[in-house]
Design goal:
The structure is a single chain. By secondary structure, the chain is α+β, with helices and mostly antiparallel strands. It has two domains: about 190 residues, no CATH class; about 80 residues, Lipocalin (Beta Barrel). It is about 60% helix and about 15% strand. The chain contains eight helices and eight strands, in the order ααααααααββββββββ. Strand 5 and strand 6 form a beta hairpin. The longest helix is centred in the first third of the chain and has 74 residues. It is globular.
């Protein structure tokens, strides 16, 4: 090709066609510049494709870690719901010697806990490759930082305090109550009498409830509730087509036929705007661009909020349009009712 262009230049010079030569030379320069620009464009496209591929792989790892974390969080939430109920029974003096005797699980109320350390390897790898994060995912990174830095670290901090209280109780009982480590009938009888009748044990159950259920478990619930909409967002980005895992409550029948009725912007008392959007078959509430709650349909116009445990009853006007909702205390008005 180079020899071909060179021959054209020589022919023009030999025939003394200077004007045509300069026109040709200019055209050749333009062609070269276009070629360079195309090469740069192709190179940029290839680099962007590589970057997006790497970013997607990093997100897949974050998604898989979050899935495991949410499954664990759900199990911890269920565990501490049981502990909370048991603590209330102890504090209110509802358990007798026979109750402890017939259900050995009750005997270990203040001596056991279930920790939770998040799987953050995928998140850490993503943060070490921030140059591969496209600008349109800035909000996603904000949400991930909130999940794995703010909430996870607070949860770990509360767990450290809670674990020390439980370990202290184990040590105290081991040093002061010989029956604590024994399993013979006489020791068991002393154990049940202590658990059922000792007023100090009620205080210890109260302490366990405060630091375990009210503090540590609260942040587990926060991690779970924040993680649900985040999980749906990641699922959509990486085009995951697998069914939603079991830790997602199911919507009632008929959800798909009415879900669009609830989409839109709502005005909460105090002038806070709440946006109800839909993603992967679920409604969720955003406040200040932050996912606050997933709504699970119980029946038409009735939804359960996973974050606050409230039942929201949506309100319709005479023309059957949704105009707001009520949680039994506050009424939230929809400000963009569809025609």
């Amino acid at each position: 090709m180079i020899k071909f262009f060179r021959k054209i230049r020589y022919d023009l010079m030999e025939k003394n066609k200077t004007g045509q030569y300069f026109k040709y030379a200019f055209g050749e320069i333009v062609l070269v510049m276009i070629g360079i620009l195309l090469a740069l464009q192709v190179n940029t496209w290839n680099e962007n494709k590589k970057s997006n591929t790497k970013f997607n792989k990093l997100l897949v790892n974050v998604f898989n870690d979050l899935k495991v974390d949410l499954e664990i969080a759900q199990s911890r939430i269920d565990f501490y719901k049981y502990k909370d109920s048991l603590a209330n029974d102890i504090i209110n003096g509802k358990l007798s010697v026979s109750d402890y005797k017939n259900n050995p699980r009750r005997n270990s109320m203040i001596f056991g806990y279930w920790g939770f350390r998040v799987s953050n390897m995928g998140y850490n790898a993503l943060m070490q490759n921030t140059e591969n994060i496209p600008s349109e995912y800035e909000q996603l990174i904000v949400d991930l930082n909130r999940q794995y830095i703010v909430t996870a670290e607070r949860m770990q901090s509360q767990l450290t305090v809670f674990a020390s209280i439980v370990k202290s109780a184990r040590t105290r009982y081991a040093l002061n109550f010989p029956w604590y480590s024994q399993n013979d009938s006489a020791s068991n009888e002393k154990r049940w009498q202590h658990l059922a009748n000792n007023p100090i044990y009620k205080n210890e159950a109260q302490l366990y409830k405060r630091y375990g259920v009210m503090n540590f478990s609260k942040f587990v619930v926060d991690f779970y509730n924040q993680g649900l909409p985040l999980f749906l967002t990641l699922k959509a980005i990486i085009n995951d087509t697998n069914p939603l895992p079991s830790f997602f409550p199911k919507n009632a029948d008929g959800f798909d036929s009415v879900k669009s009725d609830y989409l839109g912007t709502y005005l909460f008392p105090g002038e806070d705007e709440l946006i109800v959007n839909e993603l992967n078959g679920y409604l969720y509430i955003y406040q200040n661009d932050i996912p606050r709650s997933i709504l699970f349909m119980i029946s038409k116009d009735k939804f359960k909020s996973n974050r606050f445990g409230l039942t929201l009853s949506f309100i319709r006007d005479e023309s059957n349009k949704v105009i707001g909702w009520s949680d039994g205390t506050d009424t939230v008005k929809k400000i963009d009712v569809n025609d």
